[in-house]
Amino acid sequence: MNNIPKIETASLIAELRQISALVKSSGEEDIQEDSASELQVLFNRLDELAALEVNEKSIDTILKSPDFDFLVDSISRFRFLYNLKLENEKAKSLLESSDPWETLRNFTFYSNYLQLARTEYTCSGLKPKDCVLFLGSGPLPLSLIMLCCEYNLFGIGIEQDGKRADLSRKLIACLGLSESVKIIEGNHFSLPLETRCDLYMIAAQAEPKKEVFEHLAKILSEGTKVSYRLYEKGLRRILDGNSLFKLPSGFEEYHRVQPEPPVNNTVVFLKKR
To answer: What DSSP state is assigned to residue 94?
Structure first.
């Protein structure tokens, strides 16, 4: 990890402004069609910056930048859309593979998701045959796949984009998991479902966070368990707007698991009051 001294903070802010200006108008279609890989270079550079170990004085200076909110909004949006591109590509590669499970196990972040699944299962006190619901499951619902395969759970994924939900269903069928994982097109307002869920998992990119949790606080019964993920390490914690999210009343935190390599996410466990 690199520690950025105070003198370099201005250069870092300048680079973030430059990247923000380059990506602010990029939509999902532009990113999906990035055949020249120009946007990939910016995405990779942001990953490098996110991994930097930044001192608190630098963090405070960046947070107080007059255009900080705009920078974070445009950069986090771009990273979200580019990650969707990568997930779409991976999902399609699994569908085209003669051995989708082997292809999945060779995925770069496979071990990350295994470790996250172990954390979710253990800290939530889940048992085989329990049901987990994942809000914002995306085209490649690895968290649900890992939990259901490793721990014999039933999973429900909720994805608001119809195309991503359809791709996800095809992938689940390709992996032979249609009996274990169900994908629903919808959002947080699709809840509650008739199915009883033992854990509600909120994706890091499920938005708007405040609205999501306020709705959950209204519809979940007392004692219901909820988990969500955030970034607390390095510059990543401020490049991801979700890390600045403040939990509304109605929930109490009962456990927090700090990341250990190769995982970058902190996992926070809550109970409905």
So the answer is: H
**Tens digits of residue pLDDT in 139-182:** 999 999 999 999 999 999 999 999 999 999 999 999 999 999 99
Instruction: Supply angle C-alpha 5, 11, 12, rounded to 5.
Output: 75
Q: What is the pLDDT averaged over residues 65-74?
A: 91
Residue 227: burial class (beta carbons within 10 Å; 0-12, 13-18, 19+) = buried
Distance CA(51)–CA(54), nearest Å, equals 9
pLDDT at 232 over 60: yes
Nearest to 79 by CA among 24, 161, 133: 24
Q: Mark which of 33, 61, 96 sits at the end of a domain.
A: 96
The CATH number of the domain holding residue 250 is 3.40.50.150
Tell how strand 225-231 and strand 265-272 pair up. Answer: antiparallel
pLDDT digits (tens, 9 = 90+) for 26-46: 888 888 887 768 899 999 999
Sign of the CA dihedral with 240 first, then 83, 233, and 19 last: negative
Length of the chain: 273
- Whether 77 and 126 map to the same domain: the answer is no
Q: How many CB atoms within 10 Å of residue 126?
A: 19
Domain limits for position 37: 3-96
Q: Are 246 and 139 within one domain?
A: yes
Tokens of 241: 């707007």
**DSSP 8-state assignment for residue 180:** T
